[in-house]
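Task 17 of the worksheet. Students: predict the tertiary structure of the chain below and write it out as structure tokens. Keep your answer in the requested format; marks are given for formatting as well as content.
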Amino acid sequence: PQLFILHGRLLRCRGTIVDRLNSQKVLERAVQLYPDNPDVVQELGLTYFSQTFYPDAARCFERALEIDPGLCDAKYKLGVTHYERWKLRVNAFMDEAMSARMWLNEAVECDPGNSDAAVRHVCVLYALGRKDEADAAARDCASRFPAVPAFPLMSGTVAYEHGRYVEADSCYRIALSCMDEEELAAYASLGRNLLGYDDMKIYENSADEQKANIDRAFWLVRDFDPTTDVNERFLEHVYRTFRADIYFSHSSVHVSWVKPQTRGWDTERGEISIKFGWPSDIHASHGGDRFESWTYVTFGQIHQFYFSDRFLNGNLQIPPNRSEKLVFARHQTRTTRYR
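Model answer:
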């Protein structure tokens, strides 16, 4: 069994479609030979997951747990499988989110040291509208995983939605202090999600010290109440960025249990939501032609963005025949309005 597992893992880790299919072939043969070996069954589930065959992956993880109910890793991976199916199905089918919550909760109870299971658990609680539970779980996890920014981000987000801006500012600052360079750039620097295209070129060609000055000036002039200790508009930017990562990040065909392959702020829906806020209306179809139409009404002007799931991977994008909308968004000036 171990030889089959290693062979299948080696093929899968090569990353090509052909190698993943060969990994599937090897491990399916292994399951025929060793149907009651939970490690073999679980490994086949990993290969199915890497191909986004989520129902087959879930079936394997469930079978592994039937054989050995104490497999913490199988519970975690089953939770992640439902989590990714929820993302793949455009966040619309909450039964997947509820299944993800159940299995991720079991994974956390089974292995309290699994910080990634805990992160996904609080995120899916938030997405299900159980925000106070998400906040309580995040505060508990923050004491056990002080280097993980997602937990203070969640507490800050719940506080922000309740209008507790001083508390939100404190939580967000803790989160920013423990981010790596790439994540910090998404949350704290101006980036392409705030500046217009022309301003972005100037910003990118500036020295680091000048960039820091531009960052400070950008948020200073947008603080509508400088007499308070917090900059509410900066809080809103962090809030939008975190929500974009919760709803729009996805793993696609890449097996990434710790971090998604594409972060929410790097998707087109994430980009639009960070720059313009959450739309006033979303019209969605999740049938054969999956799409979302976002409507914004600002000072009497109506703007609409149309996103289509052309590649059926849950990452909706503005189609090429409507690319002028993306050009419009990316050429907006640095005076982007916040609602």
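Marker's comment: The chain has a mean pLDDT of 88. Residues 241 and 274 are 6 Å apart (CA to CA).
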